[in-house]
Amino acid sequence: MTKKVEKKSQGKKKTQVWDGNVRDAALSILLAVDNQQAYSNLLLNQTIEKNKIDAKDRGLLTELTYGTLQYKMTLDYYLEPYVRGKLDDWVRWLLRLSLYQIAFLTKIPDHAAVNESVEIAKHRARHKGVSSTVNGILRSILRDGIRDTSTIADPAEKLAIETSHPLWLVQRYLNDFGYQKTHDMLFENNLPPIQTVRVNTAKVTTDEALQALWDENYSVQRSENLPECLHIIEGQVVRSQAFKDGLITIQDESSMLPANALDVQPGMRVLDMCAAPGGKTTHIAEKMNNEGELIATDLHKHKIKLIEENSERLGLSIIAAEVLDGRKANDQFDAQSFDRILVDAPCSGLGVIRRKPDIKYTKKESDFASLHTIQLALLDAAHDLLKIGGKMVYSTCTIDKMENSDTVSLFLEKHPDMELAPAPQAPEALVALRTTGTMQVFPQDFSSDGFFVAAFVKKAQ
Ligand SMILES: C[S@@+](CC[C@H](N)C(=O)[O-])C[C@H]1O[C@@H](n2cnc3c(N)ncnc32)[C@H](O)[C@@H]1O
């Protein structure tokens, strides 16, 4: 095993994480997520791609990294009685990583998990004592058995420990959604997401895309909810020819709701106000059959390129991407000049905890109010730009009352010319959207990301 090296590159500190040892690589990723605020999903994907890690190691690396992050608080609860004094961060993460294998993975023998961790400790530590501590703690846990959670009396605390979500968040959920929904959501948040893709219907039919992926030996099936959505049972479709040829886009099924709710037609003038990296912009363009005008704006200049790259790969020419603070969109565009507007707002992202478990530990309760203020400001600006009779959609990938239903209520109170617009054109499975114009999707509903969508129409005053 080679020593870890910290490389200075373009002024940014980069950690070289792969030297052929899966557990050691998982530990490096976990440390980078913790110390450098690196995103777990990005760092994991970069490590896999850059080092061309084979399928077997890729699976184990993903499982160890995500599993340990997902159950961080649960693992700390198991460790607590055995830790005396302060541990270095890396030693604590190594113990969590080992304990995750012992407590959650049946395919790895306990003694193998312990031996590997002790070897890593020997290799990384400056003092011999560290590997003895790691060995001692893990062997004591094996002797005593994993700590019981059934004795935790408070239901919120029990859920927090068992599913590894901060207590304040569990209490917020219990308050807003009740016990059963909260319980199901917290457990679902620790399951791996289903990989789904969206068919580029401006180029091919769903049957044609399905056939193209089958021809490349991917295991794929149709979604029961959205006709343009395919579920990938096995295989890395990002490497497929179908992807390179722009027949599909990797997108969670919930993220396909806003374009379905927006009810666009070819030839319309449409604004996508918070557009980068363009997942929904390109969906809208496909639904417009690449005919009309679609302006895609985003606050961050460096993200505009992503919208352009996605549009190009998919062969969608009606998209014009530009930098803009949506709150000041009225300075840029004429009032009442758009048929449709999507506000896919910045949000706390609590609907995507399955993909980015680190979110649940980094969010603070104070974040919600500031996001809610930005969301209302974006909706206000969008309101002015919408034609009478025009429709707009507000969406977030979060599960939070303040950011979702409260934002909608306040917006409707402030703008009496706006009303919720049921979306009968939406697929049948989306009953709430079809009948009320608004829908909170929980991750347990369709095993997709947690998501919120509300559709509005502008009446004449
Ligand atoms: C949820 S993401 C959008 C995802 C995108 N719609 C998609 O489907 O690929 C929110 C986006 O809002 C952008 N954003 C944040 N504040 C903004 C603002 N004031 N005006 C415009 N865009 C903003 C962020 O840069 C981010 O790209």
Describe the model.
- The protein is of the alpha/beta class.
- The chain folds into three domains: 6-144, NusB-like (N-utilizing Substance Protein B Homolog, Chain A), CATH 1.10.940.10; 155-188, no CATH class; 254-458, 3-Layer(aba) Sandwich (Rossmann fold), CATH 3.40.50.150.
- Helices cover 48% and strands 16% of the residues.
- It is built from 21 helices and 14 strands.
- Strands 7, 8, 9, 10, 11, 12, 13 and 14 form an eight-stranded mixed β-sheet that branches. Strands 4-5-3-6 form a four-stranded antiparallel β-sheet. A two-stranded antiparallel ribbon has the order 1-2.
- The longest helix is centred in the C-terminal third of the chain and has 19 residues, at 367-385.
- The protein binds S-adenosylmethionine.
- S-adenosylmethionine (SAM) is lined by residues 255, 273-280, 297-300, 303, 325-327, 344, 346.
- Pfam families: Methyltr_RsmB-F (PF01189), NusB (PF01029), RsmF-B_ferredox (PF22458).
- One of its GO terms (molecular function) is RNA binding.
- Specifically methylates the cytosine at position 967 (m5C967) of 16S rRNA.
- It catalyses: cytidine(967) in 16S rRNA + S-adenosyl-L-methionine = 5-methylcytidine(967) in 16S rRNA + S-adenosyl-L-homocysteine + H(+).
- S-adenosyl-L-methionine binds at residues 274-280, 298, 325, 344.
Q: What overall form do the CA principal axes indicate?
A: globular
Q: What's the rounded overall pLDDT mean?
A: 93
Low-confidence sequence ranges: 1-14
At the fourth level of CATH, the homologous superfamily of the largest domain is Vaccinia Virus protein VP39
Number of strands: 14
- What is the rounded distance between the termini? 72 Å
**Which molecules are bound besides the chains?**
S-adenosylmethionine
CATH architecture of the largest domain: 3-Layer(aba) Sandwich
CATH topology of the largest domain: Rossmann fold
How does the helix and strand content classify structurally? Answer: alpha/beta
How helix-rich are the residues, as a percent range?
40-55%
Beta-strand percent range: 15-25%
The biggest sheet amounts to: 8 strands, mixed
Pfam family, one: NusB
Binding site for S-adenosyl-L-methionine: 274-280, 298, 325, 344
Family: Belongs to the class I-like SAM-binding methyltransferase superfamily. RsmB/NOP family.
GO molecular function: RNA binding; rRNA methyltransferase activity
